[in-house]
Amino acid sequence: MELYIGTLVIACIPVALFLISRRLLKSVKSVKDKVVLITGASSGLGEECAKVFYENGAVIVLCARRKAELERVRQSLLDNPKITADPKRIILQELDLEKSGYLNTIVQRIISKTSTIDILINNAGVSYRGVAHETELSVFSKLLKVNVLGTVELTTSVLQHMIEKESGHIVNVSSVQGKIAIPYRSAYAASKHALHAYSDSLRAEVSSKGIQVSVIAPAYIRTNLSVNSVTSSGEKHAVMDATTAKGMHPRYVAQVILSMVKDEKREVILAPFHHRLAIILRAVYPSMYFRIMNMRATKEENSYA
Ligand SMILES: NC(=O)c1ccc[n+]([C@@H]2O[C@H](COP(=O)([O-])OP(=O)(O)OC[C@H]3O[C@@H](n4cnc5c(N)ncnc54)[C@H](OP(=O)(O)O)[C@@H]3O)[C@@H](O)[C@H]2O)c1
Ligand SMILES: *[C@@H]1O[C@H](CO)[C@@H](O)[C@H](O)[C@H]1NC(C)=O
Ligand SMILES: *[C@@H]1O[C@H](CO)[C@@H](O)[C@H](O)[C@H]1NC(C)=O
Q1: CA angle at residue 172 from 79 to 187, to 5 degrees?
Q2: Contacts with 64 (C-beta within 8 Å, 6 or more apart), sequence order
Q3: What is the number of the ligand 1 atom nearest to the C-alpha of 45?
Q4: Which residues' Cβ are closer than 6 Å to ligand 3?
Q5: Is residue 304 assigned to a domain?
Q6: Residue tagged active-site, from 128, 184, 188, 198
Q7: How far is 184 from 212, CA to CA, in rounded Å?
Q8: pLDDT tens digits, residue range 171-222?
Q9: Where are the transmembrane segments (predicted)?
Q10: N or C: which end of the chain has fewer CB within 10 A?
């Protein structure tokens, strides 16, 4: 028995050494002085990403529609007593992903100020709650425009620049709902699945061009996402859902995003065990997944009527 344990311990040493050396040798990238463009930087996860990357020495370009909120984020960064204020490292850019056709001009304007974009964090997004067959087409259209089309347009323009300089890193903020879809989130889940699929195709296409593609699929995060989400008629949901209120702290998720950039991680599913299990179930035992979702839909039927 002792001999057995002894052999086991000895056998583990090379494995442990291998794992440790891989960890140490891995070129952890620094984001100091890197130019990071963050969409949806006026609140929630985007705002926390702005803080985390700024604290780590990056030049941050903060994009969103609400200029006043971007100003507030800038001021809170400059007021942070822990770091010496460096206003040159914060650039604000108003941008509406729902309006197509002008994002390339905006990207060129940003590059003319910063001379480059090293990292793009596609974080802006809207969510939705409603009964699919009662939902106005314009609501689907809005979700797809903000979460997919606008993001594709912006990314394509930034990518052209990255391909020319043969380097760059793109992080797409998807969701667990980019992997599985739950009832009463049809438009949101569809948009996040599209984003996820697009990223997987793109990752392969640009892998030989020195460009990294990361996708993070988080579970609930404690932000205003549910408050800001739209209903079947396009109105603001305006409710802080219990699930969202109990979600992960956005700062924690922002730190995971930073580590994904530093360690060049391609995909992180940041979710509790039962969410991961659901993702596996959907892949290996779909009929069981469908049955569970049917029950969930029935249970929640009256919540979205
Ligand atoms: N919270 C969660 O539970 C959760 C879970 C998984 C994934 N996510 C994802 O995390 C990302 C960030 O969301 P959040 O939770 O931080 O929610 P949030 O607080 O509502 O933030 C959404 C951000 O997107 C921006 N945005 C919305 N519509 C836009 C448009 N048309 N053009 C440009 N920017 C727009 C908003 O800025 P303006 O209003 O100023 O434009 C805001 O900064 C989203 O992609 C979301 O899907 C969230
Ligand atoms: C992120 O998603 C957007 C929208 O689907 C897409 O345009 C972009 O290419 C994706 N980025 C990467 C790096 O895959
Ligand atoms: C949600 O929005 C309200 C009003 O804009 C703001 O006071 C609050 O801090 C926001 N909460 C989060 C978690 O971002």
Answers
A1: 110
A2: 39, 40, 41, 42, 43, 46, 70, 94, 95, 124
A3: 16
A4: 43-44, 222-224
A5: no
A6: 188
A7: 33
A8: 999 999 999 999 999 999 999 999 989 988 999 999 999 999 999 999 999 9
A9: 6-25
A10: N
Check if the beta carbon of residue 155 is closer than 8 Å to that of residue 120: yes
**CB proximity list for 79: less than 8 A, separation 6 or greater:** 85
Global pTM value: 0.90
Q: Which residue range is the domain that position 133 belongs to?
A: 31-275
pLDDT, position 14 = 76
Q: Is the pLDDT of residue 11 over 80?
A: no
Nearest CA to ligand 1 atom 42: 40
- Note the residue count of the chain: 305
- CATH code at 118? 3.40.50.720
Task: Of 23-32, 39-48, 283-292, give the lowest mean pLDDT range.
Answer: 23-32
Give the alpha-carbon dihedral of 71, 73, 77, 79, to 10 degrees. 70
Q: Look at the chain and report how many structural domains it folds into.
A: 1
Which ligand gives the minimal distance to the CA of 97?
1
* Centroid of ligand 3 to alpha carbon of 75 (angstroms): 16
Assess if residue 284 is contained within a domain.
Answer: no
Active site residue 188: yes
**What tokens appear for 214 in the block?**
């990361």
The pLDDT of residue 69 = 98
Rounded Cα–Cα distance for residues 135 and 118 (Å):
39
- Spatial distance between the Cα atoms of 276 and 206, rounded to a whole number of angstroms: 28
Distance 226 CA to ligand 1 centre (A): 10
Q: Which two tokens stand for residue 187?
A: 């438009």
Helix (H, G, I), strand (E, B) or coil at 296: helix
pLDDT band at 10 (very low <50, low <70, confident <90, very high): confident
